[in-house]
Amino acid sequence: MLAKVLIRRKFRTGHTKEIVALLNDLRAVAMRQAGYLSGLTLMAPDNSNNMLVIGTWQSLEDWYRWKADPDRTRLEAMLEIYQDGPTQYEAYVVGTGFTG
């Protein structure tokens, strides 16, 4: 089932070049993963240090496999150096089985 993953990060000021480079590296590696469909990086208009990535995966299993990947965890650790707090994750599947 199609999955959307929201990844929220708040960065400290002054390291834009390093942050953008790491985010680009992370996206490039993600694009080669099984199940990856797309990603969108958003920046808060009132605070450019707050970013939200919306990833689309063929399944939650594909996302969880990528989340545990050693290349991803290495890049995530490098990003955390510039963060003001931990990365926050929310995963959703598209559609519902809700019957009310």
List the topology elements:
Blueprint: E1 3-10, H1 16-30, E2 36-44, E3 47-57, H2 60-67, H3 70-80, E4 88-93
Antiparallel strand pairs: 1-3, 1-4, 2-3
Helix pairs in contact: 1-3
Give a verbal description of the structure:
By secondary structure, the protein is an alpha+beta fold. It has a single domain (3-93), classed as Alpha-Beta Plaits. Helices cover 34% and strands 34% of the residues. It is built from three helices and four strands, in the order E-H-E-E-H-H-E. The protein has helices spanning 16-30, 60-67, 70-80, and strands at residues 3-10, 36-44, 47-57, 88-93. Strands 2-3-1-4 form a four-stranded antiparallel β-sheet. Strand 2 and strand 3 (47-57) form a beta hairpin.
Summarize the structure.
Helices cover 34% and strands 34% of the residues. It is of the alpha+beta class. The chain is globular, with a radius of gyration of 14 Å.
User: What order do the strands of the largest sheet run in, or round the barrel if closed?
Assistant: 2-3-1-4
Largest sheet properties: 4 strands, antiparallel
The CATH class is identified as Alpha Beta
**CATH fold assignment:** Alpha-Beta Plaits
Keywords:
alpha+beta; globular; 100 residues; 4 strands; Alpha-Beta Plaits; 3 helices
